Amino acid sequence: MLSKLFAYERVTIPIHTINELQLYGSFYRGSKNQTYKGTILYFHGGGLIFGHREDMPKKYISLLTENGYGLLALDYLLAPESKLPAIMQAIHRSIEWFMKEGLHTLKIDPSNYYVMGRSAGGYLALYHAVHASVRPRGVIVFYGYYTLSDASFTVPSRHFLNYPKVSDKMIQQLVGNQPISSAPTDQRYPLYLAARQRGDWLSVILDDTDHQRTYSLTKEQLMGLPPTFITAAHQDPDVPVRQAKWLHKYIPESTLHIVESNEHDFDRTHIDTLGINTYTVLVEWLNNPQQKYKLKGII
Hints:
Helices cover 35% and strands 18% of the residues. The protein is an alpha/beta fold. An 8-stranded mixed β-sheet has the order 1-2-4-3-5-6-7-8, with helices on both faces. Helix 1 packs parallel to helix 10. The chain starts with 8 loop residues before the first strand and ends in a 12-residue tail after the last helix. Residues 40-266 form the Alpha/beta hydrolase fold-3 domain.
């Protein structure tokens, strides 16, 4: 149990193993006396290359749990040690575990769930919402994407070229020969930086870049999604805001909350302002996703 400021419970749960690598989930929930409204399956960001399941700031977890929502943050395999097919398969196994064990292990109704992700995690949330055997109640996408065929992913990024060039030697030192499911940002970020500087990010996550369409979602698939909350920065330098706008256009019951910022992960850098405001709007949406909110922002 954390301090009164962040009054929620947290428990670490072994989910399943991949080639002797144990994948875990961190489950957060508020008071057992409050009405439980549903479970959010959460996927962290990091370009599918770095990051860890416990990256969500405590203030956001507190806001979600005190409003009756549980949060299950899940490990997933990271590239380039594991490629996208293996990453997706492992996530599918984790969700299947939740569906089978949620009632017994977590004491909750596993059919009452949402999928959520930030950046690459938003992509994973969308993909698995489309392919879920049990349809989620909703999808939450923070500055994510639904297609790997965006032109910005296949050419050197002007934004990332402003940073010092990452050497081949550094890349070789950072890539291991065993699957991993967690990697500190300060250690592995150079791998993502190098991929975006060279315009070869797809080759880092896929053995064959021709398969990018296989792991992209179509307009027709997006049209079949449940209510979806989408947020992104107006001047996102990493994932083009057009992806958020296209999601809003194609998903029939979607809410778009655009933030005036030039930072990709604005909720990491501006927790007490842009971040907490956006999560407050998210909670309003969660409490009634069918209602159309007139959100403050730039559309």
